[in-house]
Amino acid sequence: MDNQTSAITEHRDDTGAKLGMWIFIFTELLLFGGLFLVYAVFRAKYSQDFHIAAFQLNVFMGALNTAILLISSMTVAMSVTAIQKNDKRLALLLLSITLALAGAFLFNKYLEWGGKIHHQLYPGSDVVMSLKHGQILFFGLYYFMTGLHALHIVIGMILLMYIAYSVAKGKTNQSNYVLLENGGLYWHLVDLIWIFLFPLLYLIT
Amino acid sequence: MDIPIPVTLPNNLTICKMSAESKHITPYRLYAVVLVVLLFLTTITIIAATLDAGAFGVTLALVIASVKVILVLIYFMHLKFDHLIFKIFAAMVFFLLALVIAITFIDYLYR
User: Fold this and answer.
1) What ipTM goes with this model?
2) In Å, how far from its chain's centre is CA B88?
3) Domain segments of chain A: what residues?
4) Least CA distance to A178: which residue of chain B?
5) Are A119 and A110 in contact (CB under 8 A)?
6) Residues of A with CB below 8 A from B103's CB?
7) Cross-chain residue pair A181–B69, CB shorter than 8 Å
8) Among the four residues A98, A127, A165, B47, which has the most C-beta atoms within 10 Å?
9) pLDDT tens-digit series, residues A152-192
10) How far apart are CA A91 and CA A83, in angstroms?
């Protein structure tokens, strides 16, 4: 009887917490969905310009970053399984791998952006402004969409670091792991967006 | 006097069922298999892009991306094993996005 009352007095609603995370994810999907719509309409209007501008992107770098994000998505999903099996050490290891992969993604992004900026290919530069209207739009959308996505990577990394701390402290454990689940959901969202960004920006030329 | 017993019994059963549902443990192997499929699909989409198939290539790339997104939603994001409400919500949001994109293009193409 005592056990029952203590279980009842603990106020926790894991389903509610997850529902809140999903609703936030939906707002994010609509935010990026709007950007995809802008991209699609301008691509239909200036298909030739987009075709030429997209050749400036490095398909290998894009593919590498796709693989990195897919693997990191798997490791964060596996960390939930690890905590469910009460394997704290493995959960922390998997979270660390996820964070390392996120760092690798950002480093590649830095190399990509750095290379383009070095070649004067950034919004508002003399080189870009001398291009055709559609190509200017392409580079504007490229920087804005990948930049907003990279910002989400940075936020995701901070979130996952906090969750790793919570796991290490034992606050996130086998009987209470909704924080890890929600952090994982956020990380998968970042992956979802990139799954569409990669073909749209790098492949469809 | 016997009445409360059948009333509490199904109650307990539903609680057991719900906690069993929320504690579904996805095996590591399933995640690894999904990753392999995702990487395989990525390879196909890159190879297809080098063939320069035009409009068909665009359609193929978008179909492959959609399949990848569905795999991530179902397995990595655990939708397959979650409450029905999450599945309905997710389906509705993607339907809304598709609707907005379709309506915009109808307006844009037939203006």
Assistant:
1) 0.91
2) 10
3) 16-203
4) B22
5) no
6) none
7) no
8) A98
9) 999 999 999 999 999 999 999 999 999 999 999 999 999 99
10) 6
